[in-house]
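Researcher: Before we compare anything, I want clean individual predictions. No alignment, no superposition, just each chain on its own. First chain goes here; please echo the sequence and then give the structure tokens.
Model: Echoing the first chain and its structure:
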Amino acid sequence: MKAVWFERFGNAAESLIIGEQPNPVAGPGEVMIKLKTSGVNPSDVKKRAGAFPNLLDDGLVIPHSDGAGIIEAVGTGVSSERIGERVFVYQAQYGRRFGTAAEYVCLESRRAPKLPDNTSFDVGACIGIPILTAHRCVFADGSVEGQTIVVTGGAGRVGYYAIQWAKQAGATVIATASNPADERTCRDAGADHVVNHRDDQWGQQVLDCTRGEKVNRVIDVEFGANLPEVLTFIGTSGTIATYSSTQVKEPKLPFVQMMFMDLNLRLVIVYAMPEQAKEQAIRDTQKYLEEGKLQHRVASNLPFNQMAQSHELIEEGSVRGCVVVNIDQ
């Protein structure tokens, strides 16, 4: 099969190799999927760049955890009725060496849920990390109906879906964006208000939107950088659900202040979600997709031979939506 892999860490153009690898074989409890698309996420490019030094200890790595395709074969213990099923793939390269940057992938049957018939393979490649992370951030701490939620970076891959999950669940949503185009994106996704997180004291803008009422939850893309402002508008016993802190990698917490606010801090990474939470997120996602309730943004759709460029787009931070690679092209 054709595949992209790396045998050493480095920049995308120098480390990613395009060539042929042996076709995988579905083992017990596994399915073999002929992939149509592969989703590229920040975690994928960080792994390739060397964020996990022991990643290559057992040999080459085919990157990417997300994707979509059609089941072509099943291993023992899996119903043959699954053959021909359209599926999306998640966690393909979590704790494993072989991900979705290839024609075929074999993995646990449960990591390949059914992709609704009305949903494209491009969208299927956006589910694993962006949609499931957003679902966890919004719903991990109970119902959001009637609450006020702030979504920072609402035009980003996760934030865009977090706005939709929260709004459709009955929350008032305040998003942050740094330019008019991103503001429109947030409003199109359902945000009731949008403030500019590039402004000084943007937390006051949030309070202006709520007429001084503190908010219940914050879904945050830049925890360390945003925390000082977040603490100005989050209410007592509020929850901060965060999935990234790129600018300030090791934030220093004002413990006493946060303790006396009785705050809840939830750190989210989709791989470590409890299986029950993953299953619920998948069921909700399938239902919303079938009913056409989720909007999607595939910001870049590249052919297979431009895999390095897909990584570069993520690293540059020049795209807000999902980056998808078409395996057939």
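Researcher: Okay. Second chain, same rules.
Model: Second chain and its structure:
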Amino acid sequence: MINFFNKFKIPTLLGLGIILLGTISGFYLVLREQVFLSQAAPNLTPQNIAITNIADDSAVISWQTKNAANSFITYGQNNPGEQTALDNRDGDPTEPNDTGLKPRLTHYVTLKNLLPGTSYLFKITSGKLTSEVMKFNTANPLVDHTRFTPIIGSVVDGNNPLNDGVVYLSIQGAVTQSSLIKTGGNFLIPISQIRKADLSDIFPLTEELIAKLTINSDKGNASVIFNLQNNPIPLPSIKLGQDLDLTIPFKTPTPSSTIKDLDKYDLNNDGKINAADHAIVLQNFGKNPKDKKADLNEDGVVDQKDLYLMAQKTKELGSQ
């Protein structure tokens, strides 16, 4: 009889132990999965979502994620799942065997072949996360252009070109424009068809209008405020971490430069004071300039004060 109970008791206790251990392990795995999801989800959540470059047949949607993620957009007129659009850099036909999504921190999607004056719904899919439904309207076709030249510049991270990021151009009362930063740190933002913020018509660009460039990237941010010009003085190479203000008060031009002016401001010794000299100041921006003449106020560093002095002098003398 005792042997019978022993045979029954040992397997039963062992089975109960296995069941208890399995329950505890399952509970632990569930908790761990919940913790993992709670930690991972915010890192894939789209942030800094921006709708830019709105035209009658296209628009750009950009955002950032803290962790690299495969992302795309679904959109449509009646529901946000009618069509799919990939990042501008995904499935690039110029890249051999490039047909799939790539994990990125900065995301930039152009929606094309849209209808003018139409409302669209869209959602962002980032990894396994899907955003809430958002919407935007396209503009009506334009009959004219501003005929202003594009904004061209470059961005550096320390001494190296920034190869990933987005540049946003903001002008009060106008639709925000944007551009991807290309290899080599370069960017180009066309503004010939920039619209009013309410999309009612083309935005009337004028000389000396204040504009702002904002650079967003996973390596840092920067900004530049400047006066818009149709044939602009080249912008400085924008460094991450900088916030530059290149706006200056307008001065009435004087007829010609003096010998003293040429000695100080004619940095390339061509007998003129113009955009070429301004560019030399920009090229030497920062401490320990290569060209000591670019330090116009002789304080040991080429900075905003030197840019102001050169810009003020070129304004006083006009375009030479």
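Researcher: What stands out in the second chain?
Model: The mean pLDDT is 82. Additionally, The first strand starts at residue 47 and ends at 52.
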